[in-house]
Amino acid sequence: MVYIPGFLVNKVYERGSLRNTDEGFEFSFLNNMTPIRISGMRDISLEVDGKPYPLDKLTVSLGSRRIGLFGGEFSEHLPFDKNTRLVIRVAGEPLSPGRHAMKISFITNEYGGATLKVSDVIGEGEAPSFWRRLKDRLRAGSKEEEAGPVSVEGELGGVPLDPDFSRLLAALRREEPDRVPLFEAEIAIPIQEWFLGREIANARDELEFYIRAGYDFVPVLPPFLTPRLMRTASDQDGTLSAQDRERAWLTESEGLIQTVKDVENFPWPRAEEVDFSSFDEMAELLPAKMKILGMLSPAAIFGNASQAMGLQNFAYALYDDLKVVEALFEIIGSAYLKIARRLVRAPKLGAVFMSDDLAHSHGLLVSPVVYRRYVFPWYQKIGEVLADAGLPFIFHSDGRLWEVLDDLADCGMSGIHPFEPKAMDIVEVKRRYGDRFCLFGNIDLDYTLTRGSVAEVEAQVKQKISQLAPGGGYGLAASNSIPDYVNPENYRAMVMAAKIYGKYPIQV
Predict the structure, then answer these.
(1) Where are the domain boundaries for CATH 2.60.40 in the chain?
(2) In CATH, what number does 165-501 get?
(3) DSSP assignment letter at 95
């Protein structure tokens, strides 16, 4: 589960950088969040006001270095350090004065496909003053200059929009709130934009989506991104859609880290440098009773360690080279513990969510002995930090977790997400562990949300609420996440049905 919120990605665009040059025009990105390493970038494309620009018209500079492009890829591995600027220059006709909409797409090994949609203004002569930029933004109807909390009126499923984090807290305490809370940690930007009816361009847009979709929180990520290799589908015959070209998956047989020397030489991001400004930005926008869900992801401790090597190589190293495994867990675990200590000081934080896949549909990815030796001790330390701050700890893992549910409870987890139907019977989990965990899930992603009908979605929501909600301790969610291939009508049917049938006392 790799989740980077859209507004967070767009933050790296340096607004005001769009300008004409002697050869055409240019714009830039400023890494103001955290150091990362880009080991490959490909399929770079640019559109300005709907007009595509071919690759041979683009040149890229990172810091003081000009980067060669070959077949749409960076030809070398590069660190993108904090406060480093990446400049894209475009050969061609200069742009006319005024506002321009830009769409930049690319695929990276580490983070998969990304599309940034931004707008910027070209003025005449020298760079525009603050008042000129303000005037241009107001003329364009930009929401960036709005101040104060987001206020949204309306209803969903006949229920007024009233985000209130106490609803989720009651469920986490395994009590009955006024109605079953909705819970998702990852909702694809195209689904958000479809639901909202416009593009997600900033934090205010993303928050408005979460309010209108009926959530009592908004997820915010402190970006800590470690090395991994991701691959995308070949599109040699040009038949894939734009979304399919950007969809990426982790490789199991490749990794940037293979030896202790690789661990020592890699430019690991420092926990002290992780940017938390998005929490301050979002906190200023929140309605009074809504809270932030702090995200310890993507992939957290086991995922980052195993994905740095590739799971297959990691498994071999457990037998052949324990030193590299131990070095990885020490670096990654200690970094997440430091991040957690910073995270608990974030404003308007309501709970913390950790994503760290430990299993597949038939069992754990490695022996529980490995988790108990290298992973769960870090979970426990993080759990103690959160408990001292009075914050609930919610855990995500795909797959069959029966062997480690007791361990997760001992680490301080108060909620578990998302219970894939093919992996675990959530009703049985509720029977055996309902006094230890709040359960989140288990609306089927494989069929119901993707290929089923609206009526089938509604029927499954009613079934899960009737089975799991009585007595409290349940939040309705998909059985993994809301990726871009979910039928958006089915997503809307799910959140509406939760409002219609989730009122306590449960009567479905």
Answers:
(1) 6-139
(2) 3.20.20.210
(3) P
How many CB atoms are located within 10 Å of the residue 51 CB? 9
DSSP conformation letters of 121-150: EE-SSSPPPHHHHHHHHHHTT-STT--S--
Distance CA 341, CA 220 (A): 16
Q: What is the dihedral of CA 250, 255, 260, 266, to 10 degrees?
A: -90
In the predicted structure, residue 253 carries a pLDDT above the cut 60? yes
Closest Cα to residue 481, out of 432, 431, 446, 437? 446
- What CATH number was assigned to the domain covering residues 6-139? 2.60.40
Question: Which of 145-159, 255-269, 475-489 shows the highest mean pLDDT?
Answer: 475-489
The DSSP symbol for 357 reads -
Instruction: Please identify which residue in the block is written with the tokens 């006024």.
Output: 178
Cα 147 from Cα 161, distance rounded (Å)? 21
Report d(CA 262, CA 332) in Å as an integer.
14
Say what the pLDDT of residue 437 is.
97
Entry pTM: 0.84
- Bridge partners of 474? 439
* Residue 292: Cβ-neighbour burial (10 angstroms; 0-12, 13-18, 19+): buried
Q: Coil, strand or helix: which one is 175? A: coil
Judge whether 230 and 248 are in contact, CB under 8 Å. Answer: yes
Q: What's the whole-number mean pLDDT along residues 452-479?
A: 98
Q: Where are the alpha helices (DSSP H) in 164-276?
A: 165-172, 189-196, 203-212, 242-246, 260-265
